[in-house]
Design goal:
3 helices; 26% strand; alpha+beta; 37% helix; 4 strands
Length: 90
């Protein structure tokens, strides 16, 4: 799974979103992440329908969108979204 975090330079909640993402990555090491500034990655942001920053998009390994959160979700909210979609070994 991969989380894409869309941010912007003057976005105060983006710092909180980055911290939350860093905490989730420490707890779920298999999770990958990418941060994209909406100005530098304008085409990607438009293709992903980004309307505000920060925005998290959780994607499957195949690239399917599994979860989206606009704003800075709490740690428990983001962890719940990841847990609902994680593939556990059988």
């Amino acid at each position: 799974m991969d989380i894409v975090l869309y941010t912007s330079a003057f976005c105060a909640p983006c710092a909180s979103a980055r911290a939350t993402l860093a905490h989730v990555k420490r707890l779920v090491p298999a999770l990958t992440s990418t941060e994209r500034d909406v100005v530098r990655f304008e085409e990607d942001a438009a293709a992903d329908g980004i309307r505000s920053t920060p925005t998290f998009i959780l994607r499957s390994d195949a690239g399917d969108e599994l979860f989206r959160a606009e704003g800075a979700p709490r740690l428990d909210q983001l962890l719940t979204a990841v847990a609902q979609h994680i593939d556990l070994p059988r």
